[in-house]
Write a structure and sequence with these properties.
Layout: E1 8-9, E2 16-17, E3 22-28, H1 33-39, E4 47-54, H2 59-69, H3 73-76, E5 80-84, H4 92-104, E6 108-109, E7 112-113, H5 117-121, H6 133-144, H7 155-159, H8 163-175, E8 188-189, H9 191-199
Parallel strand pairs: 3-4, 3-5, 5-6
Antiparallel strand pairs: 1-2, 7-8
């Protein structure tokens, strides 16, 4: 059973006090790819609690699920809640609505259009051409020197030395898009925002 962060109480005081360390609750659309990557993430000294849930849900369902759990006592204690999901084949309306609902519930979104594997590819090269998950997998296999496996437990460690390159490339991609519709931002990934947030706590 996952250990949950609890409210802290200072000695000699009756009221709880806020820890200076940050707690994270991360909801991943995929049950393996995103979950394995973030579970392997190097915890900074200021990261107190770090719970990653692989939900196996789609864009709409994962946001609704996250919103429900964040209301429960065991989960409401987390400082930051994030949803990680992809555009894939979902309609523009479904994708945009999921992002809007998450932000309305104070849940941050690290989305990718169209697939999480774009984040991996950006570790190796900048790419501003829309592509499919299948194409990303083929190109990743070339760069990795072995067939890419979405359930690979070692992807975080394999890519860590190239992470700063991926962040730079992801930011450059984001700057290319000016539309108010995230569904039209292709390719793009905001995974870098969650990565930077976690890195800032080292």
């Amino acid at each position: 059973m996952a250990r949950h962060a609890k409210a802290k109480f200072s000695r000699g005081r009756k009221e709880p006090f806020k820890s200076t360390r940050t707690t994270y609750l991360i909801f991943c659309e995929g049950e393996k790819t995103e979950k394995n990557y973030f579970e392997a993430f190097r915890r900074g000294a200021r990261v107190e609690e770090f719970l990653v849930l692989g939900t196996g849900m789609n864009t709409k369902s994962i946001v609704e699920y996250a919103a429900r759990l964040c209301k429960l006592d065991d989960y409401a204690v987390y400082d930051e809640a994030w949803c990680v999901f992809d555009k894939d084949s979902f309609t523009s309306e479904q994708f945009n609505t999921a992002i809007q609902k998450a932000r309305a519930k104070n849940i941050k979104v690290a989305y990718s259009n169209e697939a999480f594997e774009l984040w991996y590819l950006l570790h190796f090269r900048y790419s501003d051409t829309p592509s499919s998950r299948t194409s990303y997998k083929k190109e990743l296999s070339k760069y990795l020197g072995t067939e890419y496996q979405k359930n690979d437990l070692n992807m975080y460690g394999t890519l860590l030395s190239l992470q700063s390159i991926a962040i730079r490339n992801a930011k450059k991609l984001e700057q290319n898009h000016v539309s108010n519709s995230p569904a039209e931002h292709n390719p793009v990934t905001l995974v870098y925002q969650l990565v930077e947030s976690l890195n800032s706590l080292e």
